[in-house]
Amino acid sequence: MIPASGGIFEVTVNRKLIYSKKETGRFPKNQEIIGHMDAM
């Protein structure tokens, strides 16, 4: 994890963006993140 400020929440795996709160306007549900990781 890389701490940041300014309200941007993004999840990356191997430098690939898998979720962005900036794009969706909401925080992800745990299963959404797990689903993206399982698909990789």
From TrEMBL:
Record-given protein name: SelT/SelW/SelH family protein
Domain of life the protein comes from: Bacteria
Claim: NADP is one of the keywords in the record: no
InterPro entries: Selenoprotein_Rdx-typ (IPR011893), Thioredoxin-like_sf (IPR036249)
Keyword annotations from UniProtKB, A to Z: Redox-active center
Organism in which the protein naturally occurs: Peribacillus glennii
